[in-house]
Design a protein that fits this description.
Blueprint lengths: L4 H13 L5 E5 L2 H13 L4 E10 L1 H11 L9 E10 L1 H12 L5 E7 L7 H4 L3 E2 L5 H13 L2 H18 L3 H14 L4 H15 L5 H11 L3 H4 L2
Parallel strand pairs: 1-4, 1-5, 2-3, 3-4
């Protein structure tokens, strides 16, 4: 299934390196996609919990916080796959606290029809594994990684200027997601580096220019990664 290409990439990297981001978002038909995701996660042999919500409430967020604080029933990790159609702002604020400080070994996979339903603060905590503009973002990331460092810096300036003029910082997080997916199966160090940059970007007073210049100068070239 094309919508699961991003998931396959991060799970392949997880099996190879043991590294996995703690929160992910997939876009599609929630019930159908959630079951597919749960089946793929069960292969890992850890604890997988699948829940379906027509409307995810603040009480659901609180129950999730309590459940994820417990030890896995099987294995060393626990995966929560959440099929969500509608989620209130209040529920998202409560969910944000869970996403910011999850129990060790806990990973979340949210399945929704569109990411526009999520608050920017919540969305910035999630790695978006697919979406309607998935191919475009992946193509931009692949092109960026193929460039020499000096040309990456020029592209970075354009990316930052676009995000600033539109007032949409989420574009920067989307670009980090696409970079992480492009490198997921081949470079554990780069995946961890992008994870750290995402955290820095969320911090108040962060300097996006320095963060993206650092990535432009240090991420490996595509031809070197694929060897």
């Amino acid at each position: 299934m094309e919508k699961l290409m991003g998931l396959r990439a991060v799970l392949e990297n997880f099996k190879r390196t043991g590294f996995l981001h703690h929160a992910h978002l997939l876009i599609g038909r929630p019930e159908e996609l959630a079951e597919e995701v749960a089946e793929r996660l069960k292969i890992l042999g850890d604890d997988v919990m699948l829940d379906f919500f027509d409307s995810f409430t603040i009480d659901d967020s609180r129950r999730l916080a309590e459940r994820q604080a417990r030890r896995p029933r099987v294995g060393e990790r626990q995966f929560f796959v959440l099929s969500i159609h509608v989620i209130s702002h209040e529920a998202q604020q409560a969910l944000l606290k869970v996403l910011e400080e999850p129990t060790a070994g806990t990973h979340f996979f949210l399945i929704m029809t569109e990411k526009a339903r999520l608050l920017p603060t919540v969305l910035s905590r999630l790695v978006v594994l697919n979406g309607a503009d998935d191919g475009a973002h992946t193509g931009v990331a692949d092109h960026f990684l193929s460039l020499a460092p000096e040309k990456r810096l020029v592209m970075t300036e354009s990316l930052l200027a676009e995000a600033k003029s539109s007032g949409n910082k989420q574009r920067l997080f989307d670009f980090l997601d696409s970079l992480e997916l492009a490198l997921a199966t081949v470079s554990e160090q780069s995946a961890r580096q992008i994870f750290a940059c995402r955290s820095y970007l969320r911090s108040s007073g962060s300097a996006p220019k320095l963060i993206f210049e650092h990535l432009a100068l240090t991420l490996p070239a595509v031809d070197k990664v694929l060897k």
